[in-house]
């Protein structure tokens, strides 16, 4: 694509040079007496035009290379965007593997429950460090910006328009809702 544009530009420049040459020839016919000063000036202008054309082609190529490089970098950034999060989750996966191994070796379910609770707390802490926050819903006014009403139940006047029960927790990621809370609303 860039080569086509360069070729098109060269063709336009060649046409302009031909037109300029024709005009020069016409002027020569009118002025049969040309002085060496005019030829030197014409050569100087042609040299400047050639130099400008060369600079344009180099600049265009440089910009095209820049555009390709930034596109490639952008794709790479998107592909590796979650790398930091995944690295932080790997120790939690290790903890789960150790917990699974412990299930086979022990009958003390209270110790296993405490271990799973610790892993869960570590998991939540890791997600919170990445900007994840739960959306509070229970006993608050229903808000379409945060909640998704699954159903409505008749309730007293004090519960009308409020969230009675939260069926599925919603979450913010850096103050943007990434999942709405699924709730039951009082009617």
Automatic annotation (TrEMBL):
Residues 1-46 are annotated as: Disordered. GO terms for molecular function: adenyl-nucleotide exchange factor activity; protein homodimerization activity; protein-folding chaperone binding; unfolded protein binding. GO terms for cellular component: cytoplasm. It is found in: Cytoplasm. SUPFAM superfamilies: Coiled-coil domain of nucleotide exchange factor GrpE, Head domain of nucleotide exchange factor GrpE. GO terms for biological process: protein folding. InterPro entries: GrpE, GrpE_CC, GrpE_head. Pfam families: GrpE. It comes from the Bacteria. Homodimer. Participates actively in the response to hyperosmotic and heat shock by preventing the aggregation of stress-denatured proteins, in association with DnaK and GrpE. It is the nucleotide exchange factor for DnaK and may function as a thermosensor. Unfolded proteins bind initially to DnaJ; upon interaction with the DnaJ-bound protein, DnaK hydrolyzes its bound ATP, resulting in the formation of a stable complex. GrpE releases ADP from DnaK; ATP binding to DnaK triggers the release of the substrate protein, thus completing the reaction cycle. Belongs to the GrpE family. This is Protein GrpE. The gene is grpE.
């Amino acid at each position: 694509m860039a080569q086509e544009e360069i070729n098109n530009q060269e063709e336009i420049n060649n046409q302009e040079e031909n037109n300029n040459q024709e005009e020069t020839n016409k002027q020569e016919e009118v002025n049969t007496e040309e002085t060496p000063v005019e030829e030197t000036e014409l050569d100087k202008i042609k040299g400047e035009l050639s130099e400008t054309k060369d600079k344009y082609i180099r600049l265009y190529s440089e910009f095209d290379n820049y555009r390709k490089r930034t596109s490639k970098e952008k794709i790479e950034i998107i592909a590796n965007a979650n790398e930091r999060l995944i690295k932080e989750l790997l120790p939690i996966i290790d903890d789960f593997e150790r917990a699974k191994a412990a299930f086979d070796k022990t009958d003390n379910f209270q110790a296993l429950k405490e271990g799973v609770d610790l892993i869960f707390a570590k998991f939540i802490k890791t997600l919170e460090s990445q900007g994840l926050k739960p959306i509070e819903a229970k006993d608050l006014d229903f808000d379409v910006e945060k909640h998704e009403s699954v159903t409505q139940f008749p309730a007293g006047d004090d519960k009308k328009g409020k969230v009675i029960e939260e069926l599925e927790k919603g979450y913010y990621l850096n103050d943007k809702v990434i999942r709405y809370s699924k709730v039951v609303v009082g009617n």
